[in-house]
Amino acid sequence: MLRSRVWLIVAAALIVLALLVVIGNAAVVRTNPPVTYTITWDSPETEALARAACFDCHSHETRWPWYAHIAPAAFLIVQDVNEGRKAMNFSTGHKLEGDEMVEQIESGRMPKPIYLPLHPEANLSAEQKSRLMAGLLATFGQEKDERGWQEEDEPEDEDED
Ligand code: HEC
């Protein structure tokens, strides 16, 4: 009796999980469009730190985790990535402003705190943060277009809204 109830619960849980996977995959689009902009990094370390802490939400090289396939996490993750790419995109050159990046890191707004528990590699030490900030400033400068970057004006999110 008890055993069969346990199995019933397990079976129900599996069905719910399967449904959430189906919903998570049907309802959202996880894209990684082509990279169209080449960054000249000031150092390999800056690139490595930015890739570890920023690229999942601000590039077309998102490493989609397995739980990005399961509702409701799928919705939250896809939304963060879509909004992140709209705000700034390392893969297209969109809004790459060093001082703005530094401000976000210094204030603790970026990388988004919600992202950190499952991405320990993005949880930078104080020293890594200051090296990343110096590197971002050296790479992307203080002022927009100061060094004549080609900002490709992306059509704002045609497909997703
Ligand atoms: C988990 C996803 C995520 C990560 C990781 C992340 N960002 Fe963001 N970022 C966003 C989203 C979403 C927005 C737009 C909405 C907002 O400002 O919260 C954004 C906005 C920004 C903006 C624009 C802010 C503004 O007000 O215009 C900058 C600059 C930025 N991020 C820099 C960074 C840097 C630098 C890193 C790495 C150190 C980083 N982000 C990591 C999701 C992320």
Question: Which helices and strands occur, and which strands form pairs?
Answer:
Layout (H helix, E strand, L loop, with lengths): L1 H26 L16 H10 L1 H4 L14 H15 L10 H9 L19 H15 L21
Helix pairs in contact: 2-6, 5-6
Residues in helices, as a percent range = 40-55%
Record field, number of beta strands: 0
Number of domains as seen in the coordinates? 1
User: For the CA atoms, what is the radius of gyration?
Assistant: 19 Å
SS field, number of helical segments: 6
Major beta sheet summary: none
**Distinct compounds present:** heme C
Low-pLDDT segments: 145-151
What sequence of helices (H) and strands (E) makes up the elements?
HHHHHH
- Chain-averaged pLDDT: 89
Percent in strands: under 5%
Shape: elongated
Q: What's the N-to-C terminus distance? A: 50 Å
Structural class: mainly alpha
